[in-house]
Write a structure and sequence with these properties.
By secondary structure, this protein is α/β, with parallel strands linked by helices. Helix content is about 35%, strand content about 15%. Strand 8 and strand 9 form a beta hairpin. The termini are far apart. Pfam families: Radical_SAM, SPASM.
């Protein structure tokens, strides 16, 4: 599961609730009220529309079921999992969870799913105090216990870390911990100052710090065979543009959509600009009529270094990071450390002068 190409696969990040039992400092949520949350019968309608689109496009589907915290809707979550398991067009799904609400019985039920690929949990540091300062008292021990519970049930576990100024140096030691706990994969997200995270925007990486972090993670991922380090993120191609397992183009407008708790469609969860509602207009109207998506698809619309970069087909920068730092999702990724060559820079100057 999960080895399909960009042309073969379409990805949906599906937030079935905005409710959550945690209040992490860097969270992209602005509200946890989950107003308009869809009932289970409506979730089934959403799934039917997903399957319809995949069938028309002749693509296989992948999903991430998340929130908020998806296990606050435990019964609906497991009923949805049972329905997904019967789908002919969805290849696999992941669950993105904080892990603190998973019981031994839940882990056994997850193990029975035919299409669950992995469960993703979050840790911000190998040091309990530093992790808990971001995610809440006692979170570190709860996540470690969740990892062990899931592994005892032969489930694949991934750890996601949101990188800030405070934890950017913790990655090697964190990977030591994850190796000891038999975690399968590790990935990072750059901290984007949005939602609740606006209160700690001073912790966002500088360009130089982002460069340092990406180089270090690439070095670890390539040279060590302990935990599989996933590097499918924009900017990783700046470290190694010739390795197809390093780097990925921003998925906005290419092969992904985000579905929110009330059916609202976003280009990406970290770019929360509504482009439709799946239950009101379906998927096709948003996908084919959104001016936002078309403006990003046309790479000549991108500004700054991104507008004339030869690596756009394998990167395109993070549109959400550009949006929250500059107010313009077409601007260059503010963390990009690539220096444009002379001809590229001249082409950009001429383009802007028109």
């Amino acid at each position: 599961m999960g080895d399909n190409s960009l042309e073969q696969e379409f990805y949906f990040q599906w937030h079935i609730t905005e409710r959550c039992n945690l209040r992490c400092q860097h969270c992209y949520h602005e509200s946890y009220k989950s107003t308009g949350e869809l009932e289970f019968t409506q979730l089934k309608e959403v799934l039917a529309k997903i399957e319809q689109a995949l069938t028309v496009w002749q693509k296989v589907g992948s999903l991430s079921l998340t929130g908020g915290e998806p296990f606050v809707r435990k019964d609906d979550l497991f009923n949805l999992i049972d329905t997904i398991d019967e789908s002919d067009v969805i290849d696999y799904f992941d669950i993105l969870t904080n892990g603190t609400l998973i019981s031994p019985e839940d882990a056994k039920r997850l193990q029975q799913s035919r299409k669950l690929r992995r469960v993703q949990l979050s840790l911000e540091s190998p040091h309990a105090g530093k992790n808990d300062a971001t995610r809440g008292d006692g979170n570190f021990n709860k996540v470690i216990n969740a990892i062990r519970l899931l592994k005892q049930n032969d489930l694949e576990v991934s750890i996601m870390t949101t990188i800030t100024k405070e934890n950017k140096s913790d990655i090697p030691t964190l990977l030591d911990l994850l190796t000891a706990e038999h975690v399968d994969t590790f990935a990072i997200e750059r901290f984007i100052p949005e939602g609740s995270g606006l209160t700690i925007k001073n912790l966002a990486l500088s360009k130089e710090e982002a460069h340092e972090v990406f180089e270090k993670i690439h070095e670890i991922g390539i040279n060590e065979d302990r935990v599989r380090v996933l590097m499918y993120r924009p900017l990783f191609c700046l470290v190694d543009k010739d390795d197809p397992t390093v780097g990925a183009m921003c998925s906005v407008g290419t092969n992904a959509l985000t579905i929110m708790h009330d059916g609202t469609l976003y280009p990406c969860r970290r770019l929360p600009i509504a482009i439709g509602n799946i239950l009101q207009e379906g998927i096709f109207k948003a996908w084919y009529d959104s001016d936002l998506l078309w403006s990003i698809r046309q790479s000549s619309n991108l500004k700054g270094k991104c507008g004339s970069c030869e690596l756009v087909p394998i990167c395109r920068g993070c549109r959400a990071m550009a949006y929250y730092v500059t107010g313009d999702y077409l601007e260059e990724d503010p963390h990009c450390w690539k220096q444009p060559n002379q001809s590229t820079a001249l082409a950009q100057i001429l383009r802007c002068a028109r």
